Amino acid sequence: MNLVVPTPSPSSSLATPNGTTRPQVRIVIVGHVDHGKSTLVGRLLHETGSLPDGKLEMLKEVSARRGMPFEWSFLLDALQTERDQGITIDTTQISFRTHSRDVVLIDAPGHAEFLRNMITGASQADAAVLIIDALEGVRDQTRRHGYLLHLLGIKQVAVVVNKMDRVEFSEARFTEINDEISAHLIELGVTPTAVIPISARDGDGVAERTQNIAWYKGPTVVEALDALTPARPLDELPLRLPVQAIYKFDDRRIVAGRIESGQLKAGDEIVIMPAGKIAKIKTVEGWPVTPVSGPQSAGRSVGITLDRELFIERGDVIAHTDAAPRDTRRIQARIFWLHHQPLSVGANILVRLGTRETRANVVAIEKAVDPGELASVAAKSIARNHVGEITIALLHPVAADPYLDNPRTGRLVIEVDGRIAGGGLVMKIEGGQRGTVDIVPVESALRPEDRAARYRHNGAVLWFTGLPGAGKSTLAVALERRLFNRGGSPILLDGDTLRAGLNGDLGFSPKDRSENIRRLAEVATHLARNGHIAIVAAVSPSLEDRAAARRIADTLFREIYVATPAEICESRDPKGHYAKARAGTLKGFTGIGNDYQPPAASELTIDTATRPVAEAIDEIELMLAKSGVLIEDLVDLAANI
Amino acid sequence: MTTPGMDHLDALEAQSIYILREAFARLKKLALLWSLGKDSNVMIWLARKAFFGRVPFPAMHVDTGKKFPEMYAFRDQYSKEWDLDLILEYCPGIESVDPTLPPAARSAARKTEGLKLALAKHGFDGLIAGIRRDEEATRAKERVFSPRGLEGGWDVRDQPPEFWDQFNASPPPGSHLRIHPILHWTEADIWAYTKRENIPIIPLYLSQNGKRYRSLGDADITNPVQSSASNIDEILIELDGTKVPERAGRALDHETEDAFERLRVAGYL
């Protein structure tokens, strides 16, 4: 709902008449549809003196004229209608004042919209009010909303038990509901700040502890709102200045951007992330007056010059040296998805974080939630209007903060085909390189770009998995030839061949098999990092082992599932293994049992029973072109397939 | 986003500068549509702030040939004074537009045709336009970065999501983006900012003989409103009390209910 209730001073202003700043808290009211949300909001606006003069009298008069009893919820309807007619379209909130707080109410029309609004809203709610009908008690929707608060990370929740008049203000009934909802919330990791018996219609418990609820000793709704802890103002957070551009219109070299949080001034020592280069702010430039003196704080679009010439580009983040953001290539995010095509593991996406953009790969989907049901669904992909938690591997390092530390630099959007397809909050940043710190790897003298320019491809790990006899080696060899012929540098790593040497110490126990896969993945990744295309052909039956390989190779990994049906594999039996296994002379053989776990989301699936080798190789080549491995426009080729 | 030391106008200004800089960073060939009115003058002012005194892309006036003489005088004076890279393009004759539109809308549709021709001639991938959400109901649905089809058309139902100041800035080949840096401003904001920054205005906005123009278009389809406001302070007081919409004097808004939307779908501002 987009409306603003006129208050004595504009809602965007936080200053009181005596010049002090009032803390602002943003709240959301959730609960079952009929449990009295609008009534409570109407009542709160009245009790806090936030209604325009004469509005209440006018509505009461209209109700009387129409011969219907006045309802507090009419207030919201009336304000909504005013909004529809006109003026305050870009405000998305209702504001009112308690004794010591400016309260901004974020309203929520429906489930899906609600969730999206909550996550995309100007900033997230600091607190929530969960409303329960005293007669009906805790309903399914009440529980789902509790779960939603948990999902959104809202820690401050006040519970109001409404319509107490309908249970004769029974303390016993109140206690019963209090116990049930408190237990539910605590289980979700949320401790209610208050549980309040009220009658929104009559006003009991909203601003006053009336005689009806004389047995209740806790805070009223207004007092509970007054006690909420507001979010820290942006200018009190550490400095974050994402660089929009570098301008050289004259002899000045101006670094331009908007301060997302914190403050800066000339003379400050700063660090440019993610590269970590240090400099000092020489001047803060302006127009028509320049330089600008005094500190500049969050919200300002500024331009600064530095005391030295450093390589700096759009997407970098300027911070103070003692409070810099992390640099990372791996982020865990809670996202909502808006694109008609579901987001799947392995998806190639473009991530925008501040002014930085980088290609990225979805490495894992930890959770997927349908907000209509508010229940986790199978976590293979995230459908349109669903939310979830994912891990993203980024092609280039970015400077970022967890959302809880900084709401401005802790959020990102995801683009697909040049359109924004989703957004999310950074929950966790995984820093640095894997491995132990006291090993110092020696870097190659050649840069990956040098090799890419020669081979016309980037490094990659192509992982062929499938049953013995499925055709992995046949495809791998054919692909190796194809890539070589186009001037590339493919290197074949056949599982059986490596078992003869590097992995000669390993057997076929699950543990040894995992180790076999790990070594294959490490070698392949090393080759790929150096610009080669490592082609791995290995049965690799375990989902978990292949997931580990993907983690090692990260964005370089492309899985090709050779899905030839088992009976055809057995009929081929190129190495005679099926026959031996059937005869009982080959132990630990994958193929005749059901110990092969097919991939759920490979980059490509090929059935060699129905596809000629050349055609299959075309298809692989196309996938490599589309996913950014091959450098060359293969679109025409695709059209001819 | 406001923090201590920033007022409402500071916040609007900072947001507009951010948008202008994003457009300049992400698009290859930009132009700013200069209608000579109060909104586009504020926009030029904001661009000069964003780029430290210099507007680094052309300002284009798509001329219907029917503006007020005061508007042409203003253009000639300030394009020089502000050192603008001015592009003048002319609209084709009235016979080139959809004859089923009402008369004033036909007149405005000439401007759309003029725009299309200018786009085809210069190959801009981004046009910066000074529309505001509060002006007119269909503009309320606009995005800050708004993709246009090959014909300049606007598909209201298929707009990509836009949030957190992340903009869709990749127009498909052959199409272009409209960028709206003052979409979030109101008429009163424009005047308050014009006053604070001392931005020059065309005198037609101020009352003469009990009338003034609230919005300036072609001379033959724009009417003045009753007003005694002879300076910006008085305009602000007047706006505070009025219930009459800003474009009340623009005939094309009132001919048929969907005339404006039809124009916008076809590529009008």
Automatic annotation (TrEMBL), chain A:
Determine if Phosphoprotein is one of this entry's keywords. Answer: yes
Write out the biased-composition intervals (Low complexity).
Answer: 1-17
| Biological process per Gene Ontology, one example term | hydrogen sulfide biosynthetic process
The Tr-type G domain covers 22-234
Alphabetically sorted, this entry's keywords are: ATP-binding, GTP-binding, Kinase, Multifunctional enzyme, Nucleotide-binding, Nucleotidyltransferase, Phosphoprotein, Transferase
GO function terms (MF aspect): adenylylsulfate kinase activity; ATP binding; GTP binding; GTPase activity; sulfate adenylyltransferase (ATP) activity
- Part of which pathway? Sulfur metabolism; hydrogen sulfide biosynthesis; sulfite from sulfate: step 2/3
Protein family: Belongs to the APS kinase family. In the N-terminal section; belongs to the TRAFAC class translation factor GTPase superfamily. Classic translation factor GTPase family. CysN/NodQ subfamily.
Q: Which PANTHER family is this protein grouped with?
A: TRANSLATION FACTOR
Q: What name does the UniProt record give this protein? A: Adenylyl-sulfate kinase
UniProtKB/TrEMBL annotation, chain B:
Keywords, sorted A to Z: ATP-binding, Nucleotide-binding, Nucleotidyltransferase, Transferase
Where the record annotates domain Phosphoadenosine phosphosulphate reductase, the positions are 30-224
- KW Signal (keyword) present: no
Q: What class of enzyme is it?
A: transferase
Could you confirm whether the keyword Signal appears in this record?
Answer: no
GO MF, one annotated term: ATP binding
The Gene Ontology biological process annotation of the record reads: sulfate assimilation
EC number(s) from the headed UniProt entry: 2.7.7.4
Per its record, the protein catalyses:
sulfate + ATP + H(+) = adenosine 5'-phosphosulfate + diphosphate
Note the Pfam families from the entry. PAPS_reduct (PF01507)
What's this protein's family per the entry? Belongs to the PAPS reductase family. CysD subfamily.
NCBIfam families, from UniProt?
Answer: PRK05253.1
Record-given protein name: Sulfate adenylyltransferase subunit 2
Q: What is the lineage of its organism?
A: Bacteria, Pseudomonadati, Pseudomonadota, Alphaproteobacteria, Hyphomicrobiales
